[in-house]
Design a protein that fits this description.
Layout lengths: L2 H37 L2 H27 L14 H29 L7 H29 L2 H30 L4 H28 L6 H14 L5 E10 L2 E10 L5 H18 L3 E9 L13
Length: about 300
Amino acid sequence: MTGGHAQGDGASRTRTLAFWTIPLSLLVLSIKLLAWYVTGSVALLSDGLESIVNVVASIATFVAIVYASKPADHDHQFGHHKAEYISAVVEGVAIVVAALLIFREAFGEVFHPVMPTDVGLGLAVNIVASLINGVWAYVLIRAGQSLRSPAMVADGKHIRTDVVTSVGVVLGLGVALATGYAIFDPLIALLVAAHILYTGWRLIAESVGGLMDVALTNDEEDAIRQAIRENAEGSLGVHDLKTRRAGSAAFIDFHLVVHETMPVGDAHDICDRLEAAIKKAIPGASLAIHVEPEGEKPHGVRVRIN
C-alpha cells in the first residue's frame, strides 16, 4: 500500500469515527437526562449538562476533521491540518463552560439540599450511559493517537472526562443514600466540576501548543536522526534540523552538506534516499532539504554521518 493510499484510508477512518460520535453523544445525553428526570438529583443534572457540551463538541470535531482532511490549495499551501487544533481548543473551552454550569447548579443546592428520589433506577440508567461513553472514549483516544488526530484525541478525552464525572456522581448519590445526608449530592457535583475544569484547562494548553508549531517529540526526532545516519552516505553531514507538528502532518527541514564538487544529480539522489527513509520513520512527513557545499558555516546541531 502506498503512503498516499494509507493516508487516505486514515482520513476516511477519522471522519467515520468522528461522525458516529454525534449520534452516540445524543444517545448518552438522552439517557442521562432520563436519569435526572427520574431522580431530580443535581449531580445527575450536572452530568447531563456536560453531555450537552459533548454533543456540541462532537459536531465541532466532525466539521474540523472534515475540513482538516481537505488537500492543500492555493490559499492553504501547507494543508488545513491546524483546523483540528482549533477544534480541540474550542472543545477545551466547552469543557470549562460545562464545569462553570455545574458549579452554578451545585452551589445553590449546597445551602438547600434535597434528597433525590428513585436513586436506584437513576443510577442504573446513568451507569448504562457511562459504559457507552467509556468504550467510545477508549476507541477515540486510541484511534486519534494512531491517526495523529488532535481533534479526535481531544474528543475522546472529553468523553473520558464525562465518564469520570458519572463515576463521581454515582459515588456521591450512593453516599447520600447510605448516610441519609442529601448534601453529599451537591458536594460531589462541586468536586466533579473542579475535575472537569482542570481537564478543560489542560486540553486548551495542549492544543494551543499545536497552534504554536510545537516540535516533534524527542523520540520522533531521534528516529529522524537515525534515518539520516543510515541513509546519508556520500554527504558530509546534516545540520539545522527543524521540525513542527500540525495535526497528522509533520514538517521537517534541514541542511545537507556535500562536497563542493559533487554533481547535482548525486546530491539529489541522496536527498531522495533521505526523504524515503524519513517518511517511513515519520508517516505523513513533508520535507524540505537544503543542499549546501562544504565550507558553509553550520547552524544548529549537526548530525554526523560517520
